[in-house]
Amino acid sequence: MEAVKATAEGAKAINATQVKAFGTEAAEAPLQELNINRRNPKPHDVAIEILYCGVCHSDLHTARNEWHSTIYPCVPGHEIVGKVVSVGNHVSKFKVGDLAAVGCMVDSCRECQYCKEGLEQYCEEGNTGTYNSPDKHLGTQTHGGYSESIVVDEAFVLRVPENLDLAATAPLLCAGITTYSPLKHWHVGPGQKVGVVGLGGLGHMAVKIAKAMGADVIVFTTSPSKVEDAKRLGADDVVLSKDEEQMRRYAGKLHFVLDAVSAQHDINAYLNLLRVDGSLALVGAPEQPLPVAAFSLIPYRRSFAGSMIGGIAETQEMLDFCGKHNIVSDIEMINIQQINEAYERLLKGDVKYRFVIDMASLKNEDTKQA
Ligand code: NAP
Ligand code: ZN
Ligand code: ZN
Fold this sequence. Notes:
The two termini are 38 Å apart. The protein has helices spanning 8-13, 57-63, 113-116, 166-169, 175-185, 201-212, 227-232, 244-248, 267-271, 294-297, 312-325, 339-347, and strands spanning 16-23, 32-39, 45-54, 80-87, 99-102, 105-107, 128-129, 149-153, 193-197, 216-221, 237-240, 254-259, 274-282, 303-306, 331-335, 354-358. It is globular. It is α/β, with parallel strands linked by helices. The strands form four sheets. Strands 3, 4, 5, 8, 15 and 16 form a six-stranded mixed beta sheet that branches. It has a six-stranded parallel beta sheet with strand order 11-10-9-12-13-14. Strands 1-2 form a two-stranded antiparallel sheet. α5 packs across α6 and α5 packs across α11.
């Protein structure tokens, strides 16, 4: 399908509506206000007014084309919570006025073996990411949550537990599920020692969730300023990863390690912490390859794995788990006009522990840098 420019007339011609968003036209350009099209709701669609959107490090990797796959204009954001403003006539799960959430995916083929197993993130045809994926309806790329509203098939819309703070719930949609899914897959629970590497958005959710699953949690951080916080978040112990003496304390001791580091680091130092049959799952996605030494894996029959977000049913399960255990993210609220500054702080590890954008700020007249 031909991509149609986001003008009011163009939108009308393809049965879409033009809305305000924040995004970028190039890897080196700052994010700024721009217009995008949202399709008018089809029979199975839910239209959501976005109230809050979390800021994931993947947003930054994508906006700056660090994974070499970005098509511009790019509107990031896949930790979306908001209010339902209209529904198609076949929608059964949501009604106008309900709270609703959207995570990292807005569609998949729904027919392959993985989709049928609830593993839509590993769809054989490739899942449709909330941003930077081919949009099956509009012919452009999909555009994410740094925008006024979004239209999503109800099969990919999640319910939000009512007892949780809404803004602090937004990061669960990526940081929450990306850590919950591997912790569950590798059967983390009581009697196990679990390492969490990198206390950022994902890492701090991993600490809370692994504790709620009953494990002993040890945080590995490069930031001395995060030691006390890690304990407050529930860690049983905290190791400054640059201190070899402290690292040696856990050599060969951990059942499972979740690595959520966004930049280059020595993965071998963490593989060496695993006991016999232990696994390290990488969720952090640095731009460059991470060299792995054979003798980090061979002794102790260690496994080195990866994991990507989680399926839709599992995302709902995670939200319900967080509702039951009263788990939300520790957030710093920003206006959309502060997003470029927030990205710079993210690069310095200077966020405790997730930026969440108050999307009401997009409605402000003045969208200059705050
Ligand atoms: P984040 O909030 O920026 O946290 C990353 C943390 O990594 C930092 O807080 C810091 O923790 C540590 N770190 C950063 N630079 C480092 C360096 N040079 N050496 C060692 N440690 C460093 O990022 P996030 O949003 O949690 O995302 C983390 C990574 O996961 C990103 O690469 C993101 O793209 C990826 N991701 C993957 C998936 C998936 O499905 N697999 C989903 C979402 C995100 P300390 O200060 O504690 O050292
Ligand atoms: Zn993310
Ligand atoms: Zn599929």
